[in-house]
Design brief:
Elements (H helix, E strand, L loop, with lengths): L22 E4 L5 H10 L4 E3 L4 E5 L3 H30 L7 E3 L3 E4 L5 H8 L5 E3 L4 E5 L3 H17 L2 H11 L3 H14 L2 E5 L9 E4 L2 E12 L16 E7 L3 H6 L18 H22 L1
Antiparallel strand pairs: 1-3, 2-3, 4-5, 5-7, 6-7, 8-11, 9-10, 10-11
Helix pairs in contact: 3-4
Organism: Rhizobium hidalgonense
Protein name: HARP domain-containing protein
Length: 294
Amino acid sequence: MTEAKTHADHDEAPPGDDDAKPGADIAFPYDRMTVEQFRRRFPRARWSDARKAWFVPGRTASRRIGRWLAELEAEADAHADAKGRDAFAFDPIDSPYLELGKAGFRIRTPYSKTVVDQLHEVPFSRWDGDLRIWHVPFRSYEDLRRQWPDIEAAARRNEPEERRRRAEERKGSEEDIRSKRRSAERKRRRYPLLSHDLPPIGRPVATAYGIVVFTEISGELVAPDVVADAYPDVTEDHVWGYWRLPTLEELVRTWPVKMSPDGDAAWWLPTIEELRPARRTAKSREARRQARMS
């Protein structure tokens, strides 16, 4: 960052005068009140036109500057939280899924991937695994408000009563039968692959099922008529590959590609946009496993 000032506004240190002295430089956008706070905190600081920065003398200058910057950030956060609280008071979100807490908002909804994805888009949101709620600070209210229609709609769709109602409506229908076949097929953890385009074994790759690790290519030919509900585009050139979910360590070590391939590829190397949610899911999965073991 840089600061723009005139010679009349500050003292100027001769070029090279501070080179041999212990100390640290700091530059920030010019703001009269910030400069006044800075000068009160560091009365021995001098502006250097050569450096385009303030020079604070002293062996502990860097540490003292760090503490001052942290205090400024805390003040800015408090101001942003106050603005967010005022915005909520003026135009509140009225929802059974949101309640007011001491430091922000507490959000509790039925599980929905849409809800999780939307809340990850809200700055400073965090998941509390013990209380099973999301925390969002007041400063993020405007971002939360923009995402809220999608969050609430997804939460209502995933209420147990609503899910049971939809299941009853689908029961016995052609869609229900196909859905059960697809679910049963996925539980087999196998995936059709073109025999001339096989993925690497033991490495996370992206598929229609998300990011998986193939453990074996069996060579067994796929019967298109048997799995048409789950894989409508499969041909007699496909063979079965068997997969497992990747570990968090594997996902962290995976280097992302810049973009996914065009077309209807059966598998591809994952992008960072695909790796991020997969890493979050893997982290939650491993935390649940460790909790069961403890």
